[in-house]
């Protein structure tokens, strides 16, 4: 089984634990990263966990993932609702991809209820808090198993 995945986090997710705890909980970015790494090790998956506030850097990460990774889990944060460039990059990635949101974007402001990537990813998880990351890793492991 190929088992290298990248978890890409978009703008302001580096401030988890400080920002809008009612939406995103109290877990910090580093704690979240540590729990994802722990879960991946248990499942025999290698992960890279990254974050950028810069749209073009996220596009570069997705492009580089085509050769380097077997799956992408992405919380594109605010860029979910605005970035055609991130959508286009994800469309080029032909392996499994999972869209992730900590909050339920469909219960929030109208501008968040539109995702530019939902229709091109393999599947999505939203509204389940930071546990969504762990669930996404488990789901990705199954997707990769089925591919091989
Ligand atoms: C988010 C939801 C987005 O609307 C928001 O801009 C974020 C985080 C989430 O994880 O719930 O930054 O992607």
Question: Which descriptors would you attach to this protein?
Answer:
5 helices; alpha/beta; binds 1,3,4-trihydroxy-5-OXO-cyclohexanecarboxylic acid; about 150 residues; globular; about 20% strand; single chain; Rossmann fold
Short account of what is shown:
The protein has a single domain (4-144), classed as Dehydroquinase, class II (Rossmann fold, 3-Layer(aba) Sandwich).
CATH architectural arrangement:
3-Layer(aba) Sandwich
Number of strands: 5
- H/E order of the elements? EHHEHEHEEH
Q: C-alpha Rg, in Å?
A: 14 Å
Q: What ranges have pLDDT less than 50 throughout 5 or more consecutive residues?
A: none
Through-space gap between termini? 6 Å
Alpha plus pi helix count: 5
Structure description:
The protein has 5 helices and 5 strands, in the order βααβαβαββα. The longest helix is centred in the C-terminal third of the chain and has 17 residues, at 131-147. The chain has helices at residues 21-24, 29-43, 55-68, 84-92, 131-147, and strands at 4-9, 46-51, 71-75, 97-101, 123-126. Strand 3 (71-75), helix 4 and strand 4 form a beta-alpha-beta unit. With 148 residues, it is α/β, with parallel strands linked by helices. A 5-stranded parallel β-sheet has the order 2-1-3-4-5, sandwiched between helices. It has one domain: Dehydroquinase, class II (Rossmann fold, 3-Layer(aba) Sandwich). The structure holds 1,3,4-trihydroxy-5-OXO-cyclohexanecarboxylic acid.
């Amino acid at each position: 089984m190929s088992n290298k995945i990248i978890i890409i986090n978009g703008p302001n997710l580096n401030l988890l634990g400080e920002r809008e705890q009612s939406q995103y909980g109290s877990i910090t970015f580093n704690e979240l990263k540590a729990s994802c790494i722990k879960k991946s090790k248990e499942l025999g998956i290698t992960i890279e966990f990254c974050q950028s506030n810069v749209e073009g850097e996220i596009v570069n990460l997705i492009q580089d993932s085509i050769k380097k990774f077997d799956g992408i889990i992405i919380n594109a944060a605010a860029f979910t609702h605005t970035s055609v460039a991130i959508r286009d990059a994800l469309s080029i990635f032909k392996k499994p991809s999972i869209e992730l949101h900590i909050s339920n974007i469909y219960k929030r402001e109208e501008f968040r209820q539109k995702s530019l990537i939902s229709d091109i990813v393999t599947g999505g998880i939203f509204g389940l808090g930071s546990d969504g990351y762990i669930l996404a890793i488990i789901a990705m492991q199954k997707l990769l198993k089925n591919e091989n």
